[in-house]
Write a structure and sequence with these properties.
2 copies of one chain form a homodimer.
Chain A lengths: L17 E13 L3 E8 L2 E8 L5 H9 L5 E10 L12 E12 L16 H6 L1 H4 L3 H23 L3 E2 L17 E3 L7 E3 L5 H9 L4 E9 L11 E10 L3 H20 L8 E3 H8 L13 E2 L1 H4 L5 H4 L3 E7 L7 H12 L9 E5 L5 E3 L7 H11 L6 E7 L1 H18 L10 E5 L4 E4 L4 E4 L26 E6 L2 E8 L4 H10 L4 H14 L7 E7 H8 L30 H7 L1 E3 L2
Parallel strand pairs in A: 3-5, 6-9, 11-17
Antiparallel strand pairs in A: 1-2, 1-4, 2-3, 4-5, 7-8, 9-10, 10-22, 12-13, 13-16, 14-15, 14-16, 17-20, 18-19, 20-21, 21-22
Helix pairs in contact in A: 4-6, 4-15, 13-14
């Protein structure tokens, strides 16, 4: 037996016990007469103590040969510490070691295995198995495990079946780019890895399994942004005989269950907000509601005063930064630079200070006298001490820019606290998005999303006007999950593919199996999928999903630890009947 | 709201309730004055009743338009049935329908949605979403869900972390053939889909996560035998700081937990049997212990009597079929034909009847008198009424043939009951297997399996003699799981790759990341993997894993429902930088 206890469980009650521990050498402190070692395993740290005078030469020799990250097994007696460490679970005791067995040596690690490591990203990715030993990463992996456990507890208790869907499926060009897998047994043909189990979960509804879920890997071959991975995990769910409200309630329940059981937090009922309302008031479809600071439209208030920037603008819109009237010139310049950055792209920033003495002062005093500015202040419900920030231009672009500015101000005011959670549902998304470049409509959610019944009459003549029974779960400005009520009628699905530019033949070839299934008694159904990596990182208070994945890939889609992807052999090329393009 | 109840829950207590149900039309019985419909959902069947005289014309019209598998929503009152059906959960009540809403129509299904369908394999695979509606398949999917739930319950309660490992990994030619995935961002290079998370779970042990599991998809591009799938699911587990006995106990616990909690069966302690013992006594490494009928070696007893078949044989070995002395000539001929089939390949079958009158009669009376036969009987501990069956030839082939015959006799005697479960551990497997064709050793389990310490000295000079710390869980003659204690020493791992024919360079290129990891404090570790599809089918009392997979592939690796694999577009070929071989 390698151990009687773990390194995290011994305490004052164990004093006098003879125990065996196994673990890694975290730290060695040699004070001459006494020598201490912190022994680490998954469960914690236990201090080992060696008294030079009282141990034999052989044991001393072994102890002296140890280095960081050596794996050892020790047997000894639990004793009370002279100087206790109240911060450690095992801080009241130490182990007086009688025998020591070196299970494995270690080279000196290329970076320190501490909460704050001295290793850069690249080296920590290469030696990921060492990075995973660090407590912060271990806590993330444990959190992810707990999230999985509690997700299943909730869904199992609500009669969901976890049903596995295939990974080797069929390539369909709609949506993101597929990873494909050449077939050896069907040469010249390819499987695709699923971007999501969408069609399969709908088929399960047709098959009568009215509550399905799966925590499942999905794949998208996209150029990777900072926080995307080519493979990622979804909590994928679908229900039959439900309306939108049933789904929102069920998964609001799941989210609350996770907050309660993983983080011990009770959350309010989630507000519901239409897409239009969110865009108008927050300039984005995933507003961070930890703070208010809603948009105030000024077109009627500011136009017609010879100020060309406002007069020519499609939209003049602003926010009121509470208590920021005292911002210095430098701070205001920073904000101007912020909105003028290429990724935000505003032309400039207009401000008005509502000074604490009641006077008003703006960056456009040339055009607006104090009387006018008073009207502004009233429109914003501003009070003395507040700062009004205004952007103007094309509607969509201006909303987006002001939304970014709002978040920036939120950051500066400390309104985006990492231990506060504000979930909400954003609903009534548009069904379609027009793409200027390709001159066609794309599905905003996906081609299986049902239009709102009351909007169906727009489908033929003005499809851009149709709203969908689609919804996103947003927490703290992060889209954590999204879903929709689905089409379950063959003809409507066919019409939808037509609007998306599919010929009937293409639609039949790629999604014929689903449309056929709709002819054999498909029930009304809908579902949702949560980004599991994303919700774990949100719960973990981090912005990076990579730290919540045991073995992530870098931004080029490489696993630098195993050095993959890599070349394959001629035999493999021959068996698959493929070759590289010359 | 689509329903107030499911079709499986209404009973005598609900009489008088107004309820709404949704589901599929299973059966319509029109008896003139009365008309009944069985309405089906995932939870059961509820009988709907329509009294022609008492319903309005519109409702009657709707009812008459219904066909099998239509999806309907009905509202009505629960009433007591006149003739109750005690076999149905809902058999005491029926629903007197007031309103009926046709949610979706159905074409006539291509086969009957009944427990025994009239559809052939091919058509049921093509319309898998309809096949999945049948109760026996639904029960399998539910069983699989429950197996997953209970597996996680057990492992979570024993402090295992479920940790996801990557699907886009690196191709390594050892073992079965990989499925590969061309990389677009790293053109000319490929990912491979994992045959198992073996190396990753070992790295997790190096990383200190001493109890890992995952219910995870794995992939092997092999020519498919009847009961293999290109993608399959494993319960994959690994533990650190453990010896073989720790692992056997932990997973014997899991198996018992599953039997208890999924099937309500208490199982005895699992016997442990060495590979050598199993081969000698049952002729195979996965003996079905639901019945005894162990092998009896006869070399010393039968040789030297001028019977060339025995005298020339490497092994003469037999079994005693209890109570089969009365077998007819025809039955014995059938058994002879059975062992002479090409896939078994014995030259013939020798028998001796121990008649109930105490006389003995064999098929080789020319060579063996009754005195001799008495010795045979004594060796077998045979009694009057028994039948002795003997095979002779090359050792391995003869063992294998007699093992098949033993199972056949077990079948004929009804000794292989599908509701009896007899698990055991088979241990001490050979580390290596010699392959005549390629003239090299292969790892019997895999290259990471540790040799038994006491056998390590054979590694250099006589590797075939080395036994491994490897073990299989066998239930009713089926290998349900297998695992081993792993190598955790870089030099031993390197030596092992050498024995398997890797150059140092190849070993470093393919598995360098693992061998490097072993230099940074790798703990002793080991693990096991269960075939999840297999154990589900065993628990479900079926020999086919396909019925326990929601969307299986056929023997050519095709999904005939979605028609995959399929062709991909020129754009995809171009982006990936690959082409088909001309």
């Amino acid at each position: 037996m390698y151990r009687t206890h773990t390194c995290g469980e011994l305490n004052i009650k164990n004093i006098g016990n003879a125990v065996t521990l196994s673990g890694w050498v975290q730290r060695i402190r040699d004070k001459g007469a006494m020598l201490w070692i912190d022994l680490r395993d998954r469960y914690g740290l236990t201090q080992l103590v060696f008294e030079r005078e009282n141990i034999d030469a052989e044991l001393l020799e072994k102890v002296k040969s140890l280095g960081r990250e050596f794996v050892i097994q020790v047997t000894g007696q639990v004793i009370e510490r002279e100087s206790k460490n109240p911060k450690m679970e095992t801080g009241e005791i130490e182990l007086k070691v009688q025998t020591l067995n070196i299970l494995n040596k270690s080279l000196t690690p290329p970076f320190t295995i501490e909460d704050e490591s001295d290793g850069g990203d690249e080296i920590r990715m290469k030696y990921r198995y060492l990075d995973l030993r660090r407590t912060p990463i271990k806590n993330n992996i444990e959190l992810r495990h707990n999230m999985g456990v509690e997700t299943r507890n909730y869904l199992n208790s609500h009669k969901f079946f976890e049903i596995e869907t295939p990974f080797l499926i069929k390539s369909t060009p709609e949506g993101a780019r597929d990873f494909v897998v050449p077939s050896r047994m069907n040469q010249g043909q390819f499987y695709a890895l699923p971007q999501s189990p969408q069609t399969f979960k709908q088929l399960l509804m047709v098959a009568g399994y009215d509550r399905y879920f799966q925590i499942v890997r999905c794949f998208r071959d996209e150029d990777l942004r900072a926080d995307r991975q080519p493979e990622f995990t979804q909590i994928d769910c679908e229900m039959a005989f439900v309306e939108q409200e049933d789904i929102l309630n069920m998964f609001e329940g799941l989210t609350k269950h996770l907050f309660k059981n993983v983080k011990g937090i009770d959350i309010h009922e989630f507000p519901r907000m239409s897409y239009d309302f969110a865009m108008k008031n927050y300039g984005c479809d995933k507003p961070d509601l930890r703070f208010k600071m809603t948009f105030v439209e000024l077109n009627d208030v500011v136009k017609g005063k010879e100020f060309k920037v406002f007069d020519d603008a499609e939209l003049v819109v602003g926010i009121c930064a509470k208590g920021c009237a005292e911002y210095t010139r430098k701070q205001l310049d920073e904000l101007t630079d912020f909105v003028k950055r290429p990724q935000i792209g505003a032309m400039g920033l207009i401000y008005a200070r509502y000074n604490s003495d009641g006077t008003l002062k703006s960056s456009v005093d040339k055009f607006y006298n104090e009387e006018e500015l008073k009207k502004w202040a009233a429109t914003f419900n501003a009070e003395p001490g507040d700062l009004i920030l205004i952007l103007a231009g094309k509607e969509e672009k201006t909303q987006k820019a002001l939304s970014e500015l709002r978040l920036e101000i939120g950051n500066r005011l400390g309104l985006r606290k990492s231990d506060v959670y504000y979930p909400l549902w954003v609903c009534d998304f548009p069904l379609l998005e027009w793409d200027e470049e390709t001159q066609r409509y794309y599905a905003k959610h996906h081609p299986f999303t049902a239009p709102k019944p009351e909007d169906i009459h727009f489908l033929e003549k003005d499809p851009g006007k149709v709203r969908a029974n689609a919804y996103d779960l947003v927490i703290n400005g992060v889209e954590v999950g999204g879903g929709s009520i689905r089409i379950y009628d063959r003809d409507l699905q066919k019409q939808m593919f037509g609007i998306l530019g599919f010929t009937d033949e293409e639609a039949q070839k790629q999604f014929g199996f689903l449309m056929n299934a709709f002819e054999y008694g498909a029930p009304p159904h809908g579902g949702i999928a949560f980004g599991f990596d994303r919700i774990c990182s949100l719960f973990g208070g981090s912005e990076s999903i990579r730290d919540f994945i045991a073995f992530p890939k870098n931004n080029s889609g490489r696993d630098v630890m195993i050095d993959s992807p890599s070349e394959i052999s001629d035999l493999q090329f021959n068996e698959l009947g493929i070759m590289l393009k010359p």
